[in-house]
Amino acid sequence: QVKVAESGGGLVEPGDSLRLSCITSGSYRSLYTMGWYRQAPGKQREMVATMPYDGGRNYADSVKGRFTIDRDYSNRTAFLQMNSLEPEDTAVYYCFVDIRGDTYWGQGTQVTVSS
After folding, report:
1. Rounded Cα distance, 71 and 63, in Å
2. Which one-letter DSSP state was computed for residue 64?
3. For the residues 26-35, what does the mean pLDDT come to?
4. From CA 98, how far away is CA 35, in angstroms rounded?
C-alpha cells in the first residue's frame, strides 16, 4: 500500500512564500510521477504542477514563474515552493503519486492567502 502525506500549508499574506512537502511510503518501483493539485471552495480540483520520473516539469499557467516543483528521488519526496502567493492561490493542496496508472492521493494541506 502506498501512502502519501502533505505538510507545510498555512495562513500567509499576499506576496509571501510557502513550501509544501509530500512524503510517500510503501513498496513501489522508481518510475513514477509526482505532483500537486489544488481545490478551492466551490471549484473543481485543478492541476498545479507535475514532475514525471524523467525530471520534466509541468505547471498550470496560473502558477508559472511563481511555483516550483522539485523531487528528492532517494527519499520519494516532492516539494512545491510557492512564491508571490496571491489570494487566488487559496485552496487545499493535494499531493499525488502515479505509479503506472495507479494514483495515490494525500489528505491535503490548506493554504490560505489573505491580508
Report:
1. 18
2. T
3. 82
4. 9
